[in-house]
């Protein structure tokens, strides 16, 4: 087992990465200070891993809620169902909430914990690659709105993150690949050695090689933890973690939540960002080709949905948390392995990228 730390002073916490971590109850128990434990999970994960978590907490009063699986359920409607049960079961403010699932469950469980009685402790037990390498770390929580993704939420840090690599054995191929998009992102924004490693070893990840998965999960978490420690509330450097996300969120919202997985939409968004970076004169055409080639090697989509036109993209991108004074701001690349802080882009240049990239 590897143990990393997100250094945030009094809010610091560990990230545990390894095999069979759910088979070691003491690991989870040492971070729970209450007899009341509330587990949020979904219909896919519950039959596989819920009982194992319950069995490791035999001394506690345990209640569970099992939500439908999918991005379309990451909403205020389903968030309210969590609050309803917490209140009906009379959970106190020192209760602990466990988020057992992928990014949707982690975001919703964390947001519920942030809001319930103005904040109760919570623990992330991520069960997808995307959640283990990205969404479970850093304290971003929230839900979607029909007009914009993740526009309602809070920064709220967990007590710990337990990333058991063995749970990825039951992850379907599409979800596995979607998580790899976020790993590629770390290579692009600040870790060129990781990017080069992925170019040489993508086949190992797609074959679910345990040592390869452990390596990229640890490397991704190190990158995320260092950025979050420097900028917890995304007032500066943390924004680079959103490479491809402004474009990707527009795709998720425009096509309807759940049509594209988050990682799939971000993959297309990173292609847009690479294309725009080239148009700005920041990276070469060869760099763009290299980025697209790696995404294709990972079996990720690289072309935008034909149903979405330029005007719709621009309209949806104008609803983004990075925007300032009505200006669309995006993360671009100065090199493979170096992202720039958000910049307001020339609308004509942005529209050219949206019009031309991947439309041939």
Would you give an account of this structure?
The structure is a single chain. With 360 residues, this protein is of the alpha/beta class. It folds into two domains: 2-169, Rossmann fold (3-Layer(aba) Sandwich); 173-356, Dehydroquinate synthase-like - alpha domain (Dehydroquinate synthase-like, alpha domain), CATH 1.20.1090.10. It contains 13 helices and 13 strands. The strands form five sheets. A four-stranded parallel beta sheet has the order 4-3-5-6, with helices on both faces. Helix 2 links the parallel strand 3 (36-42) and strand 4 (61-67). Helix 5 packs parallel to helix 6 (173-189), helix 5 (129-135) packs parallel to helix 8 (210-230) and helix 6 (173-189) packs parallel to helix 10 (262-279). The N and C termini lie far apart (47 Å). The mean pLDDT is 97.
Question: Strands, helices and their partners?
Answer:
Elements: E1 2-6, E2 13-18, H1 25-29, E3 36-42, H2 46-55, E4 61-67, H3 76-88, E5 96-101, H4 103-115, E6 122-126, H5 129-135, E7 140-145, E8 148-155, E9 161-164, H6 173-189, H7 192-206, H8 210-230, H9 245-255, H10 262-279, H11 285-297, H12 310-317, E10 329-330, E11 333-335, E12 338-339, E13 343-344, H13 347-356
Parallel strand pairs: 2-9, 3-4, 3-5, 5-6
Antiparallel strand pairs: 1-2, 7-8, 10-13, 11-12
Helix pairs in contact: 5-6, 5-8, 6-7, 6-10, 7-8, 9-10, 9-12, 10-11, 10-13
Summary, kept brief:
The protein is of the alpha/beta class and 360 residues long.
Structural class: alpha/beta
List the domain count as a whole number: 2
Corresponding CATH architecture of the largest domain: Up-down Bundle
Task: Give the N-terminus to C-terminus distance in angstroms.
Answer: 47 Å
Q: From the 3D structure, determine the CATH topology of the largest domain.
A: Dehydroquinate synthase-like, alpha domain
Spatial ordering of strands, largest sheet: 4-3-5-6
CATH class of the largest domain: Mainly Alpha
Radius of gyration: 20 Å
């Amino acid at each position: 087992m590897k143990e990393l730390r997100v250094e945030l002073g009094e809010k610091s916490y560990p990230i545990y990465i390894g095999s069979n971590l759910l088979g070691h109850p003491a690991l989870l128990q040492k971070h729970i200070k209450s007899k009341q434990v509330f587990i949020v999970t979904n219909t896919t994960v519950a039959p596989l891993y819920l009982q194992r978590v319950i069995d490791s907490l035999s001394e506690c009063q345990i209640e569970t809620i099992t939500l439908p699986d999918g991005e379309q359920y990451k909403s205020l409607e389903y968030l309210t169902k969590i609050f309803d049960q917490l209140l009906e079961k009379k959970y106190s403010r020192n209760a602990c909430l466990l988020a057992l699932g992928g990014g949707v469950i982690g975001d919703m469980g964390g947001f519920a914990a942030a809001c319930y009685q103005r904040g109760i402790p919570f623990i992330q037990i991520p069960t997808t690659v995307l959640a283990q390498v990205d969404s479970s770390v850093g304290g971003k929580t929230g839900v979607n709105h029909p007009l914009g993704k993740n526009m309602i939420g809070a920064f709220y840090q967990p007590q710990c993150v337990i990333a058991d690599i063995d749970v990825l054995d039951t992850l379907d191929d599409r979800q596995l690949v979607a998580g790899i998009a976020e790993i590629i992102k770390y290579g692009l924004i600040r870790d060129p050695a990781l990017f080069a490693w992925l170019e040489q070893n993508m086949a190992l990840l797609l074959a679910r090689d345990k040592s390869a998965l452990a390596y990229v999960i640890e490397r991704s978490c190190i990158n995320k933890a260092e950025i979050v420690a420097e900028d917890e509330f995304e007032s500066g450097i943390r924004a680079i973690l959103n490479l491809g996300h402004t474009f990707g969120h527009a795709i998720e919202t425009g096509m309807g939540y759940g049509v594209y997985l988050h990682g799939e939409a971000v993959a297309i968004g990173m292609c847009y960002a690479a294309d725009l970076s080239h148009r700005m004169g920041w990276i070469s055409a060869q760099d763009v080709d290299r980025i697209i080639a790696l995404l294709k090697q990972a079996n990720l989509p690289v072309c935008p949905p034909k149903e979405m036109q330029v005007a719709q993209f621009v309209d949806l991108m104008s609803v983004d948390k990075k925007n300032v004074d009505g200006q669309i701001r995006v993360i671009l690349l100065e090199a493979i392995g170096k992202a720039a802080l958000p910049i307001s882009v020339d609308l004509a240049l942005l529209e050219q990228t949206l019009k031309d990239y991947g439309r041939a």
